[in-house]
Design goal:
Elements (H helix, E strand, L loop, with lengths): L2 H18 L4 E6 L5 E4 L1 H7 L9 H8 L3 H16 L8 E6 L5 E11 L2 E8 L1 H21 L4 H15 L3 E9 L4 E6 L5 H7 L2 E2 L5 H9 L3 E3 L12 H7 L3 E8 L5 E9 L7 H32 L9 H17 L4 E8 L2 H8 L1 H18 L5 E4 L4 E7 L3 H16 L3 E2 L5 E2 L3 E7 L7 H17 L5 E3 L9
Parallel strand pairs: 17-18
Antiparallel strand pairs: 1-2, 1-5, 3-4, 4-5, 6-7, 6-11, 7-8, 9-10, 10-11, 12-14, 12-17, 13-14, 15-16
Helix pairs in contact: 5-6, 5-10, 6-10, 12-13, 13-14
The structure holds guanosine-5'-triphosphate.
Guanosine-5'-triphosphate (GTP) binds next to strand 12, helix 12 and helix 13.
Length: about 475
């Protein structure tokens, strides 16, 4: 070896030693041959590839940027732009798929000396993730403040997680505490047939990852659905949907109540890393804010329109609904009738069995009414033990038959008091109906109330019909 060659080799060794000690990932490639001739230690650690595995620049691109369209439309124009020395952006910030299957966000830059192109890569994943999360969080909070649809808000969360963990598909299920079931909140990238199959699933042991996580109220990690007992009844469904691993986290309110379940699915067997768990925590806590806010909105609305004891429409809501229905009847020249109902001697029920048992009677009564009435009837609790029922498309005779049926059903029923005694009670009803083309709810109620008074006066447990032909509107 000549002295010059010796010096050159020594120089190269020193340069490599120097580059191996820097934390920045560095590589150089030969422009004419397209070969990658050197990668430093940081490069190997960062991307996970050895020089033998990515000896050619094309192979490198295919591995780290598997999407050919992205290579053609983003990376290649950037290189050409850079070569012309007029870069529209000096560094290219892009996503790189590493050998371990994770993708990292990097800032790439290169310089050219003769036939050699020197590349350096800076890992900006943490910064990028923090920025994206911040953006997703503020987008979500803005949507919450604007009362956007819950599904849209949850979609933002799901999309953010999927963006950070490219190989995952995520979902948010909502917990219905009354039925103990999970309903679909958002799962934009799971197949429809899968979402439909698990919609309304009852939580319990061995009900997939979400059903079990919600039931146990703790995180469930299933590495391989195909062999896990939690999935034994859903293994085929999961196979059809192409999911093999599923990690699920219960979503809890600030008070710890179960609100739903967040799930991350993968197409291959997989256990979560620390970063995955952190991502799941992030998603669950955002989803919790969105769901809790949505639920309290709904509760406020329910309180504004529902009677808290019976769950029926309250006076205000009954008037709104009844007015709309009456207007439709007037416009389509249909009949319309009103019933007013009052429990007989309700005071004595309270006195004999206690106020709480009186409440029980009112609750049961409301349930019985809902079952006995036709679907299009509008029912409301408009006073203490007073109920109103609008019957669209029913004339006075039909309404009287409905009223008679209610009276009879209730007279033959019993409600269990708190100390388990059978409480029997009766009701009185007044009927009014629309005559001609002019009518309003106040007038119908006034007439029905008059008839109800008559029913009370003439002995109770009976139905009386108002003389509507003498009303001011007839
Ligand atoms: N338990 C209970 N009682 C109520 C509620 N609202 C009103 N009441 C009671 O209902 C009773 C109504 O009594 P009254 O108006 O004298 O009528 P009544 O005893 O039903 O007798 P008649 O209507 O004449 O047959 C009162 O004792 C009220 O306290 C309620 O939400 N729960």
């Amino acid at each position: 070896m000549t002295q010059e060659a010796n010096q050159h080799q020594e120089c190269e060794i020193q340069l490599e030693d120097f580059l191996d000690s820097t934390p920045v990932a560095v590589a150089w490639s030969n422009i004419s041959t397209g070969r990658i001739e050197y990668i430093n230690k940081a490069f190997e650690q960062f991307f996970g590839y050895t020089l033998e595995e990515i000896s050619d620049i094309e192979i490198w691109y295919q591995r780290v940027c598997p999407d050919p369209e992205y290579r053609q439309t983003v990376i290649e124009p950037w290189i050409i732009d850079f070569q012309k020395n007029a870069p529209s952006q000096k560094n290219l910030k892009t996503r790189i798929l590493c050998k371990d299957g994770f993708s990292r966000q990097v800032s790439i830059c290169f310089s050219t000396v003769g036939d050699i192109r020197l590349w350096h890569f800076t890992d900006i994943t943490d910064y990028w993730v923090a920025e994206k999360r911040l953006r997703a969080r503020s987008e979500m909070l803005e949507m919450v403040s604007k009362s956007s649809a819950l599904k849209d808000i949850l979609n933002v969360i799901v999309k953010q997680v999927q963006l950070e963990s490219l190989s995952s598909v995520c979902s948010v299920s909502l917990f219905d505490s009354e039925t103990q079931r999970l309903m679909l909140g958002a799962a934009p990238d799971l197949p429809n047939f899968y979402n439909q199959a698990i919609e309304g699933i009852e939580i319990g042991m061995n009900v997939g990852s979400c059903g079990t996580a919600a039931y146990l109220n703790e995180r469930v990690i299933v590495e391989d659905i195909r062999t896990h007992p939690y999935w034994q009844d859903y293994a085929q469904l999961a196979k059809d949907a192409g999911v093999v691993a599923c990690w699920s986290d219960p979503i809890r309110s600030a008070k710890g109540e179960l609100l739903g379940a967040f799930a991350m699915y993968h197409a291959t067997p997989k256990l979560p890393t620390e970063k995955d768990l952190e991502l799941i925590n992030f998603a669950s806590s955002l989803a919790s804010i969105a769901i809790e806010n949505h639920n309290s909105h709904q509760e406020l609305e329910r309180r504004a329109y529902c009677d808290s004891l019976t769950g029926l429409a309250n006076r205000r809501s009954f008037f709104e609904l009844a007015e709309k229905a009456l207007l439709q009847c007037l416009m389509s020249q249909k009949h319309c009738s009103m019933l007013m109902m009052d429990v007989d001697h309700f005071k004595s029920i309270n006195d004999a069995y206690g106020h709480a048992s009186g409440d029980l009677v009112l609750k049961q009564l409301a349930k019985m009414l809902e079952q006995a009435l036709p679907d299009d009837a509008i029912l409301g609790r408009i006073g203490g033990e007073e109920f109103a029922i609008l019957l669209p498309d029913r004339d006075g005779d039909m309404a009287t038959r409905v009223a008679e049926c209610i009276r009879e059903t209730l007279a033959n029923s019993a409600v269990k008091s708190l100390d388990n005694q059978s409480l029997h009670f009766t009701v009185s009803l007044g009927v009014s109906f629309k005559v001609g083309v002019h009518c309003n709810i106040d007038e119908l109620l006034r007439l029905a109330d008059k008839a109800l008074y008559q029913a009370k006066e003439t002995g109770r447990n009976r139905v009386c019909v108002a003389n509507c032909f003498q009303s001011s509107f007839s």
